[in-house]
Specification:
globular, Jelly Rolls, single chain, little secondary structure, three-stranded antiparallel sheet
Length: 97
Amino acid sequence: MLVDVRPQSKTFKRYFSIILSEDEPTQVFAPAGFIHGFCVLTDQAIMHYKSSTYYDRTKEFGFRWNDPAFHIDWPNENFILSTKDSEQPFFDYPYEL
């Protein structure tokens, strides 16, 4: 799932989702100005990330997975969330990246 958080975009706060599987290897590109998340639909999964910059914990941020601002139709209701993910703030525009 990707959400467009570029304020000037025609698709601001809209999301795009795709189901990935080992049967059809696919890559998804998340350009600057998009946030991303995923929901595992099987007992286990392996995710590989590529990044345009080195990881810097001080620049990490996120938004609540079920934020009503995005109207995301998640394919599952039984989530196992980390404390970090469950405590993310709700999206509140304007914000600073």
